Hints:
The chain has a single domain (3-165), classed as NagB/RpiA/CoA transferase-like (Rossmann fold, 3-Layer(aba) Sandwich). It starts with a helix and ends in a 5-residue tail after the last strand. The chain is globular. The protein has helices at residues 3-20, 23-41, 58-65, 133-140; strands spanning 45-47, 70-77, 80-85, 91-92, 98-99, 112-116, 119-120, 126-127, 146-150, 171-174, 177-180. The mean pLDDT is 88. The relative contact order is 0.20. Helix 2 (23-41) runs parallel beside helix 3. By secondary structure, it is α/β, with parallel strands linked by helices.
Amino acid sequence: xxxxxxxxxxxxxxxxxxxxxxxxxxxxxxxxxxxxxxxxxxxxxxxxxxxxxxxxxxxxxxxxxxxxxxxxxxxxxxxxxxxxxxxxxxxxxxxxxxxxxxxxxxxxxxxxxxxxxxxxxxxxxxxxxxxxxxxxxxxxxxxxxxxxxxxxxxxxxxxxxxxxxxxxxxxxxxxxxxxxxxxxx
Length: 185
């Protein structure tokens, strides 16, 4: 098994612990950091996600910022997704993911993308569930938003284990840390 697959499995085990120990405090800490980041950055069009049980509860953030910013969420289409405006009700689909109904409305350029991760490598690249949906989505964009990875607990390796197509974060937020990727001069 390659390093990325091994790390992914280790991260899944670590996240099971984080889901059960101090979960409410962990969610609240990350959501507070995100709300502050959004306010300071004056972002208007934000890509968020509807959380799985192992992910930071972004619904708390959505409740706090709804009406102040435009919120978009993934809507699965084939091997990738498109963005749709967040609205209720949500429906359960493939991979137990909840999403709003499809929309054909034109979506503006997003300023900020908040993306859940299983882990992050030394280049701040995303280790996800291995489906590549976020990678394909970001590859299809004409412009690059600021990308923030979020997680219930830190699953970070200094090693460079990701591939060239894996998306890279500008910021990585866990309940106890904010790590900012330094840009090359």
